[in-house]
Hints:
Largest sheet of chain A: none
Low-confidence stretches of chain A: none
Radius of gyration of chain B: 24 Å
Number of helices of chain B: 13
Structural class of chain A: mainly alpha
CATH superfamily of one domain in chain B: FAD/NAD(P)-binding domain
Distance between the termini of chain B: 60 Å
Low-confidence stretches of chain B: none
Oligomer: heterodimer
Strand content of chain B: 25-35%
Largest interface: A-B, 8 and 11 residues
CATH topology of one domain in chain B: FAD/NAD(P)-binding domain
CATH architecture of one domain in chain B: 3-Layer(bba) Sandwich
Number of strands of chain B: 26
Shape of chain B: globular
Order of helices and strands of chain A: HHH
Mean pLDDT of chain A: 95
Helix content of chain A: 55-70%
Helix content of chain B: 25-40%
Distance between the termini of chain A: 30 Å
Structural class of chain B: alpha+beta
Amino acid sequence: MTALTLTPNIEIADDFYADLLAAHETLSKDESDAFNARLLLILANHIGDRVVLSEALSAAAKAAGPR
Amino acid sequence: MNKIFEVPLYPYERSDDQVATRPARHKVIVIGAGPIGLAAAIDLAQQGVEVVVLDDNDKVSFGSRAICFAKRPLEILDRLGCGQEMVDKGVEWDVGKVFFDDRQVYEFNLLPEEGHERPAFINLQQYYFEKFLVDRARELQAEGAPLDIRGRNKVLSVTDHGDYVGLLVDTPDGEYRLEADWLIACDGAGSPTRAMLGLDFVGRVFEDNFLIADVIMEADFPTERWFWFDPPFNRGQSALLHKQPDGVWRIDLQLGWDIDREEEKKPENVIPRLKAMLGEDVKFDLEWVSIYTFQCRRMEKFRHGRVIFAGDSAHQVSPFGARGANSGLQDTDNLTWKLKLVIDGLAPDTLLDSYDVERILGADENILNSSRSTDFITPKSEMSRILRDAVLDLSEHYDFARPLVNSGRLSVPCTYDGSPLNSADALTGGPERTRPGAPCPDVPLDDGFLLRALGDRFTLLTIDCDAPEEIEEGGVTVTRLALTTANDRSGLLKERYLGDAPSAVYLIRPDQHVAARRTEFNEPLLRAALRRATAQEATQ
């Protein structure tokens, strides 16, 4: 069993996704990269648990599509 | 200006050894009269071990160099008899400020933990540090300690003959030969000894240049550590301002890799940079300028037969976190008591292999920490810069991001977990920080501090528990230090040494690291722990 939640868990997922796009709407590529980095760090701190964070790093790496 | 690094501190004097018909044999020869070599020699001499220090120079180091000395090295210097001079002269600081771009993002206070005799850190120029060590060496000599410092004695060759080491030494009066039972090489990052023996020194080179400038100014800057990431006066790079004694300020400016080092060092190029940083109106004198690059690396082993490496000759780190001289002093602290026991025939020479195990653990910890600081300060990729900048931006607004800001993780001593000298922890409920392998934390006592009372011998520390005053095992004597929580007014003895345990017995090594601990005194187990701590019995 993994500690990381990889099943649907976001309330009203479409709304969240729209919020995420909206947050980036007026930003340049550089600003967006910086925004993503800040968001990532805020979420990582909220999670805190190193096991969950490690699993999230692996899960993200594993899901890379063909390039 | 009278600079102490311009006066010979240990001028060349002809030694009788130079005209001897057969090479003179010494117990220990130390190569290098820098901070680490001098500390090794003082430690040995005050325990009665005959030692000769050879240095190709005759002065203290030029320029401030190492400037930040941490609590543990100061405690070691107390044991060597010269901690007070360092603390009296040094500058103490607690407050640090972090700047990003053109603004201060946050301020921190180190809030040093209560109940220690020594401060968390002092700033002190390396030349003072070396001078106080030489003063202490002179004091020991006056008391008749077997210590000799030979300036302008340059070692030309080193040969390990198995049962002794042979040296060829050059002096203003020509060459002569010496022999030593043991050789300690404290001859710095570029160690000629290491090269002469053809030994490895591998690791990671960081492609960057830093300009270090010591300036003397009458300025109102407070005694704080200021660190800038990407400031307007040094775009895309970092900067550090730190105070030293005598109105001297250390300024570190990152320059990047692709520069002309000789050009950058010229005052006409340095001064405008400093003015941009300090302000056009601030008056200052440039005392010393240097440009350095750095590496993080270590030897595969520090002990090679009868030749033992300590300090930068064995391992090198980036300067972030003040882990160079600080870890070197922990090397000699670890080494000298072991060497003394081996020389006295009270322990097998395999005890010295534990120096390798324990100090390689320390070196790896330092290399890891200083590499991480370097990666934060000088991001190596676009994404690492984006993440670094995100941390800094967040740190201005949210506490959580501040521990991620890494402008140097300041040196703390290594706990020798897993050392073959440790006995298994048998103090149920005992504090984590004083487990076997840990350096003893200080505690205020009725009449002073614990570490002073421990000194430099094996000690049986008993807390609320009975034990013999003295135990001898194979020629090694352990002396009891009996403490009780009845007069532990600060409560720190209980907090740091008992935890939830009702009583405790600690076996403490001469370097003030814990070898074993349990709830009650048990003679056979204590004797076994002592044999283990002196490499006379395999680990349990």
